[in-house]
Amino acid sequence: MSDWIELVALDQLTEGQGKSIKGPDGHCYALFLHGGQVKALDDECCHQGGPLGEGDLDGEGVVSCPWHGWQFSVDTGECLDNPGECVRAYPTRVENGRVHVQV
Ligand code: FES
Q1: Within a 13 Å sphere around the CA of 10, how many CA atoms are in the beta-carbon half?
Q2: Which of 8, 41, 59, 69 is most enclosed, with most CB atoms within 10 A?
Q3: Residue 1: which pLDDT band, with cuts at 50, 70 and 90?
Q4: In degrees rounded to 5, what are phi and psi of residue 54?
Q5: CA dist list (Å): 89 to 11, 39, 52, 103
Q6: Does 79 sit in the ligand 1 pocket, CB within 6 Å?
């Protein structure tokens, strides 16, 4: 069974940037606003745990981990420079101006 959890108001996200958010479940999520769409990944980088929500997001929807620069697709969580590595990507929705992720 999967649940939707509410994380943050949409207006707290900035186009082209990420944000690290701790959910009510205690898990940290990296949220991005890319092309007007909200994307969500695990905040913890699968390399050594860097905060992906604080990484730079490029115009193609690729975030670079702030610690050692591994690059991840914000759509899929796939690590683009280390095949086989990934972080979890979550479905998102916006209801009443609030961002939810499906966990
Ligand atoms: S912790 Fe993310 S690249 Fe090393």
Answers
A1: 14
A2: 41
A3: low
A4: -100, 5
A5: 21, 8, 12, 10
A6: no
In the predicted model, what is the mean pLDDT of residues 53-64?
A: 98
Quote the DSSP letter at residue 74: T
Q: Quick one: average pLDDT of 67-96?
A: 97
Minimal CA–CA distance to 71: which of 31, 79, 45?
Answer: 79
Q: Domains in the chain, please, with CATH?
A: 4-102 (2.102.10.10)
100 Cα to the center of ligand 1, angstroms:
26
Alpha carbon distance 99, 80 (integer Å): 26
- Out of 54, 67, 72, mutate this one to test ligand 1's pocket (max ligand atoms within 8 Å of CB): namely 67
At 16, list the tokens.
């082209």
Return the SS3 of 34.
Answer: strand
Q: Could you tell me the two tokens for 52? A: 């992906």
